[in-house]
User: Fold this.
Amino acid sequence: MAAIIDGKKISQEIKEELKEKVSLLKAQGKTGALAVIQVGADPASSVYVRNKKNACAFIGIESLAYELPEETSEEELLRLIEDLNQDGQVKGILVQLPLPAHICEDNVIKAIRPDKDVDGFHPQSVGALVIGQKGFVSCTPAGIIQLLKRSQIEIAGKRCVVIGRSNIVGKPMSLLMLREHATVTIAHSKTKDLPGLCRSADILIVAIGKPRFIGAEYVKEGAVVIDVGIHRDADNKLCGDVKFEEVEPIASAITPVPGGVGPMTIAMLMNNCVQSIEEG
Ligand code: NAP
Assistant:
């Protein structure tokens, strides 16, 4: 039976720690706001935006919401970002993705000043991660490192397989595990013998984006399994990329969905905002 890694509890601990830090920073006169921009009214995005606003309120930082209509042009969005770049009280800028098809995401991400890039998506932030320099780290992978560390799971020297090579999860995840001295392999859709490769992993991190794809045949006895996936199944219930009931008896520790990786993303966004206020 695996230990269940409780992301809900760990994310709450982090937010409580941040709340304390924010009040200490306030006492030193250090404050700041997170600007959250949403273009269009995608219902899933609206939920994420609301959760971010609530998290800001909980830790005690101001959030500024910009809800722009679907037909907003790229130029208009870039102008708003530039205004926020120049605003000294705004310490973090976040543009909720995905954007409508007529707006180029890369242009938007590049327009955010790297010292306000609390999502960690700017090429300068990614470059800093690659060469081990200071910069904001993408929130979901940073949250997974916290889950492992706060569950006393050793990373150094362990074999880690990350399934997925996306810019927001797979690649930064692999780099962070390397930074923590794991021996890392990245798997993707062209990888041969995925089950065999995964069975070599002491720590298996699954960000494949396919519901309940990873079963027992992918997991070594005693491995730690981190499930990044979030999906709604046919019964409208949340599930991950891993077949939890099949894998849990083999693993030594596992994240559930919901309540595993998911809550960590916002906690680490708050962490990045507080870091920005502290440094700004
Ligand atoms: P993505 O951009 O769709 O990337 C999926 C990756 O999986 C790609 O690199 C792809 O390989 C690889 N892949 C697909 N099919 C495969 C197969 N059969 N064998 C091996 N590799 C395969 O997804 P993402 O944005 O990284 O997100 C992954 C999952 O995490 C999604 O379920 C998403 O909803 C979830 N997510 C959760 C959070 C959170 O806060 N918990 C945050 C972000 C994402 P190729 O590169 O070769 O196509």
About this structure: The longest strand covers residues 33-39. The radius of gyration is 19 Å. The first helix runs from residue 7 to 27.
